[in-house]
Fold these 4 entries.
Entry 1:
Amino acid sequence: MSEKAKADLILTNGYILTVDPSRRMIENGAIAIVDGRIAAIGKNAEVLRDYEGEQYDCNGGVVHPGLIDAHEHAVWHLVRCWVADTFSVREVWEDYEDPLVRNISSYDEHLGMLLATMEMALNGTTFFGDTGSSRHLEGMFTGGNIVGVKGFTGAGIGDNYIPELAIMQYSTNKCLDILEQQLKDYPRTRKRPVGAHIGLAGMEHCSGDLIVGSKELAKKYGVQMQVHLSVYEDEVKYFVKEYGMTPIKYYDSLGVLDEGTTLVHAIQTQEDELPILARKRPYIIHCPGASAKYGLGALSGYFPEMMDMGVDIALGTDAGNWSDGLDMFMQMYLAAVGHRETKKEAPIFTREDVFVMGTINGAKALGVESECGSLEVGKAADIVVHTTLRPEALPAYDRLNSLVYATQGKTVNSVLVDGEFIVKDGKCTRVSLEEMAPVFNEHAMNLAERMKFKLQRTWPLV
């Protein structure tokens, strides 16, 4: 009898959703982890025949890849849930985002990233993409590298900002210098899992020269270029007036659309732009919660048609005060049910479709599909384990159906990144929420005072 290989950890007795190319689901499954990577995955008996080591009993709970939140603005999370339902998009920019970016400090950004990554971890997200929000990179990156969640983020910049956000506007060359310097200063490593990439404000806020230059930097440093595009109706009108064509056609004319480019929102994609997306295959990040909150139209957009044409769609939560929460299961739910409601047809996106969007497609959109997004031998052990001891998880029959439509993040019990528990038995392992909660509240109120932001209430507070 051959000697068993040593594993650092073996997860046993799991109901495993691999999201591998064959989309295997393994009942009574096990995963052996060696040096932060998946060394074996299969039935309990198979894995335990070949490996020995410390075991963690999943007790029949669902086990799946860490979720990928492909678009958010995590650094602003300290001020989420401040904006009243009555705010228009313009009022959000003028009365909230402008005073925020003018008054936010490095420590505010540190705390915002810490709060956001704690919420992500506790809801099963192990990798995120922030399109760029920061004015204080050091505070943001130190805050982001505490909990253990992986991600990309960077400076919030543009060379053609609207007046309300002009403090984040620089010359084209200065923008490119900032982007390249952050790539040099903040590479993503195993010890520092949150690093820099190319994220742009996009929309009306970036010139063609900045877009092309940023694309060249992304190729040089081997990262994705992520950019907001086709978000608002007024944005489309701006492009037609300024460039004589709609946004996606304009980006195509610049030669920047390919699998190395990720377009965020794409709500206002026009029907005659769909063949461009099908041909060039940029990744699309659908943020149904952010759009639905402000009635922007994503749930009546062309996302089902994009998928049918072979375009890979990922999901994102977006920023605090746009969708407010960072539970990726909520975005799966909204994507699954929202398009059915607007098209009066079912199904449009199935439970399988939206789960793929929240895992492997998110990894593709961030350029890390060789590392994460599915449970396969050789990939990082970024793994979520759910409990069955919640009423939402019972009866334990169609597990994927339950995840998307019933349990969502409420049943997340433990989360591993690179084989290390960053959440165990419902608590972050590296930082105490009980200790940090009063700090978050105190500094949020302090920031509100500096912003001169007043919460709007329709019910009397006595």
Note: The longest strand covers residues 25-34.
Entry 2:
Amino acid sequence: MKIRVRDIEELWKDRFAALVAGRGGLDRIVEFYDMMEQPDIKPWLRENLLVITTGYAIRNDKKALLNLIRDLREVNASALAIKTRFFDEFPKEALALADECEIPLFFLNNDVGFIEVVYPVMTAIVEARNQLEMSSRYRIGTYSQMEMNGKLFLDLQSGKITQAEEAEQRVNSLSWPFPPLRMILIQTEQNPRMAAAQEKDMESIYQMMKGAMERAGIWGAGIVRQYQYICIMKDVEEEKADSLCSTMVEKICSMLKYRVAAGVSQQFYDYLELGAVYKDVKDVFRIREKKGLSGNVLWVEKLRYEQIVMHMAQQREVRAFVQEKLAALEIYDREHESHLAETLEMLSACRGSRKTAAERLYLHRNTMSYRLNQIEEVLGCDLSDAGQLEELGFACRVKEYM
């Protein structure tokens, strides 16, 4: 499916640009776009190209403007979109020539930034190659910066964008940061009351995040989703990133009246990796819940060991191993209302030190010895054997995530 100039007119109408001449060329195909500011751009012109410019390089130069329109016709380009703020008076001859050459001429809104103008065009061109109906694309022109960030994040996270060139074009069009990168994921509890509070404050939270990054001198993009607030930022030193996370967590807590926590990803270099990075950083919230961690800012790199254990707990062979090692002890505890599994976990955590384990459990040494004898009897093991204790300790660690 081809995108045509009349589709661009529909995307831009009412806000971004107005068609002022060249209506006879509305069926011209648009396959490319470029922003050009050189006085002589003829060498870069090509067929089916939409040229977007401030017009500064040819301001008040009627001859150069007329030559540009002729050059566009010569190469069978698509259209010209230009801002008029640098012209004392836009030449009427240019309007007449655009009509004659059937080169659609748009006046861009002088108060709208190029990012907002270019994004719907770029997205429409890309999605035209995927056969998306134009009726769906027309909605792109109404997106705010917050919505455009959210759409790009979703396309990257879901794997919809698969080509590096497309990823680069889209992140550049929204002024997202260059690598190396980190992701900050701030997550709230999921409940209907939380959703209602978030819906009300989405724009305010987005603006707060944007302001916090600007004040910290950190280049980043903000994304607001249900129960989640995300920053894709240029990597900075840990102290600076930690301070930004703490600031945003504190402000979001204050705005929503709910507790939130932040996870910080490892450093990454490719936007095509964003989906994997997102899954990676989400793990810290489950680890926080399982381990009862109290911090509000959690770094993936500092919890990597726990993450590995958590992933191992999902493997069928590992789950079978844990069942084999600990099932009898769990059954015994249920039937006798005892705490042998807890005692074994503490002994393992204390690396086999019975004295330390007893102190942490607030047990008399005789009670501790009695429990350990019971464990050995139930499991048929020898807790003084370092190898057996290591296996049982591994089973206890993995069991936390099952």
Note: The chain is about 50% helix and 15% strand.
Entry 3:
Amino acid sequence: FSTPVIYPVSEVLSGHLEKIVCNISSLKVKGSLPTHSNISLSRDGNILNSSHGKPSVEYYFVPNVEQDDGAEILCEAILLLGSQVLRKNVNQTLKVVASPYNVSILATHGIYKVDAKIMVTCNAKGKPNPEYSWELPSKVNVEFSNSNKTVTIKSAKEFHNGTYRCLIHNVYGKNSAQIDIVFEGKSRNWVIAPVITMLVLGLIIIGGVFYFCRKRPL
């Protein structure tokens, strides 16, 4: 009888309903059909599914790239022809691919002041490894590194305030993550001068009113 064949022979996509089929094109042995036949699919010694008297068996599952990629699938056919037991089997390594997942984005600052150094890093998993791009409030004085995973601003300005969005993709899909980075305002040294000016003006006005009241005739 024919040697079993496992389908698909290419990749399966993580997180999607997939099907493995083991098929035998012919169950005949020297022109005769067996009195009994059993075809099974198994993994690590555990039977996934089996069929009796049929030339094929199917198994539906949702693969996980971290758990199933590289797993060995065994298809075994056992035929009984009179008192003779015939066996054939075939192995196939499961190839699982995945669109980007487990996306994370981190920043050294959620709130920043003028001239602060800001670093925003994006990470994701996927098979094949994903590529990264960014949507930024401004690309002025922005550096990209670590295979485009990291954005660095050595001296942040007010126009760097806003949403930093990381875009991740590979041939099987895309994903994204974002973080808001808020400009707090100028440093205290820039604020002190206007405050002192306002206090001085206030004192002058109060002094003027007091002087006017004293000079006013009764």
Note: Residues 186-191 have pLDDT under 50 and may be disordered.
Entry 4:
Amino acid sequence: MKKIISSIMALVMVFSLVACSSTTKKETKKETKKETMEVEKKVENSAEKKYTSVAIDDKHAIATNDNKTFEIYELSSKYHPKLTMGNKYEFKIDPAKIQGNKLKFDKELEMLGVKVGFPLSIQGYQKLTEKVKNVKVVDTRDAKSFGEKTIEGAINLNGAEALKAVASKKLANFKNDSLKDFTSKDIVVIFGKSPEENAAVAEILFNVSHVMVTFNGGDIKEVLK
């Protein structure tokens, strides 16, 4: 009798374990399906985002999709095997590869409301210098402030004088021997005491020295801290 009872109890335990295992598998499948759906949803949403960008070399572009923050992306497209530095492109993200497809070139495309001197945060500046070599820095403050303390390797172009030249629409009136040190292949980040003066210097660099890629870094004090 004891043997029969023991056998029955053993069978009950086996059935219980099988039932638990089956339930666990079903729950795991549900969780996996839920996670997959969430990932697919994220991918789908990300793929719909349209980014505007400016090429900083033949394969990297600095881009924004919210007109507030910039990220640097490596882009590739069968239509644009190599990017043209300074050209502006629109693209959509492929989340799996983090690469752009169907790049749309638009010479007049604006980012953050400007065509040159794109606003760049300190974090954006740090990312840029990490990804790209030989970024040139301009300090637009007066010669005295520049001489007291500046960013290592910075070039001084007076922002107040640049602002006057731009306002009068006489860019040739802005005289500075350092303008000859810039070329169309340069990537320039401009710092100073005011974004307006930085923007004026960016316009002069674009029109006089033909610098295609300029960024407005804002107040230099944020960098010199």
Note: The chain has two domains: 47-112, 114-224.
